[in-house]
Amino acid sequence: MKPALLTSCSIAFAVLWTCGMLWSSGTIDLANVIILSACGALAGVAWYYAMRWVFQLMHLARPSDPPANPGAER
Fold first, then answer.
1. Please, which domain of life does this record's source organism belong to (predicted)?
2. What number of other Cβ atoms are within 10 A of residue 7's Cβ?
3. What DSSP line would sit under 3-55, residue for residue?
4. pLDDT confidence of residue 57
5. Residue 60: which of 69, 51, 68 has the closest Cα?
6. Residues 19-74: pLDDT tens digits?
């Protein structure tokens, strides 16, 4: 899994989540838009880290921390 693809998917998730929350709230005023936009950004970041963890668990993504001595034998 490429990091750029995961980043763009998390941005799309955040935008769709925010739009869905604004649509379901009924009233669209400035405070509602600001609060739901902040919550949407947090939801996008949480989705990014959750999906990165799932992809690492499924061995579809590289681990985030490289080994200290990649050429050293054990």
1. Bacteria
2. 13
3. HHHHHHHHHHHHHHHHHHHHHHH----HHHHHHHHHHHHHHHHHHHHHHHHHH
4. 84
5. 51
6. 999 999 888 899 999 999 999 999 999 999 999 888 888 877 666 656 566 666 55
